[in-house]
Amino acid sequence: MSRLCTLLLVAIASAGFGQAPEFPDFSRWEIVDPAARQMTYMNRPSLFLSGGIALMPETQLADGTIEFDVAIHGQQGFAGVVFRATSHDDYELIYLRTHRSRQWDALQYTPIFAGQEAWQLYSGQGYNGAAELPANRWVRVRVVVEGYQAQVFIDEAPKPQLLITDLKREWTSGRIGLWGRFGAANVSNFKVTPLERSRPPARRLAAPAPGVIARWSLSQALAAADVPPDRVPDGLTWESVVADATGIVNIAAVRRPPPGAKTPRSTVFARAVLRVPEDQRVRLAFGYSDEVTIFLDGRRVFSGRNGYLARDGSSLGTLTLGPDAIFLDLPAGRHELVCAVTEVFGGWGIAARLDDARGISVE
User: Fold this and answer.
1) At residue 25, does pLDDT exceed 80?
2) What confidence tens digit (pLDDT) does each residue in 158-168 have?
3) Segments forming the whole domain that contains residue 284
4) Which of 24, 50, 282, 290 lies at a CB distance of 3.0 to 4.6 Å from 35, suitable for a disulfide?
């Protein structure tokens, strides 16, 4: 067992559908957090998480309502709910930014793939919400999950403060639990009410915006320290992927950091093959997280950084498609556009759009 984790597991019978089990006694949970503590706080049995997750034993949920009370300590930190978990490193996550009360990003949704968060990729409407997060009292949190949507209600609000219309992970039944960072809160009075569904929901996929590169090929993941800065290395293998409607490819959904990497920095190459019917100059707008080097037909044409605090003291490193752009002179014919995308933390992704393109197609 890793010394980085404390694993407590006491099995109980699975809670049946249609019931609403409450678990004020967190000693029955599977807790993966070396600093976790079960304690009485503000006259209630509660769980304090500082750097990990805690999962309910055996209970599975695909759709339903998750409720709990949270007591925020008035400091910077994060506290949230895990659902549809298929492992300790793969789940949906909705959390409170406890120091951002009343701000536009007080609430955050992100999918977790292989332990990698993606809040830098999914930011703004549909992913963030404003809510008042009072400190030093118990505040009720209610999350209603159905299909690929979720609603978040804080402190008995009559309307959801966050409406997520496109949950990124595939719909499945999975485990439920809690998540915390930096010891920002205690949680008590956890309750789950499953909703039975007769068949899986259909995911409604929107059409990509005009000019967005919707199809890429991704290489295997490499340790960033082993990647040459001025060329695309030989011997890469490629797998086709499809971007979402906004043009974003969440690389972490299909690539894990290479085993044995000496640093957390990992690089994947994303390739798009362009068929150009006539000579033209086009504007390539792009967004990325955290670092990128762009090659056109093997020639480096751009390098940049967009990680957390990489640009200024307030930069979160969020991926936006548009502010970064370069112009490409494309003679008629076939061209390879390759982006070396390096991740540090918070989101590993790429998006690109061809503006003013005449008849260009992407293989």
Assistant:
1) no
2) 999 999 999 99
3) 215-362
4) 50
Nearest to 284 by CA among 363, 232, 331, 351: 351
Residue 115's CATH number: 2.60.120.560
Contact assessment for residue 80 and residue 93, using Cβ atoms and an 8 Å cutoff:
yes
What b/e sequence results for 11-27 when a residue is b if at least 16 CB atoms lie within 10 Å of its CB, and e otherwise? eeeebeeeeeeebeebe
| Rounded distance between C-alpha atoms, residue 123 and residue 125, angstroms | 7
Q: Does 2 reside within a domain?
A: no
Q: Where does a domain end: 159, 194, 229?
A: 194
Comparing C-alpha atoms, which of 122, 59, 117, 62 is closest to residue 90?
Answer: 117
Residue 275 lies in a domain: yes
What are 325's two structure tokens?
A: 């752009």
**pLDDT for res 264:** 72
For residues 83 and 89, what is the distance between their CA atoms, to the nearest angstrom? 12
CA–CA distance, 352 with 339 (Å, rounded to integer) = 10
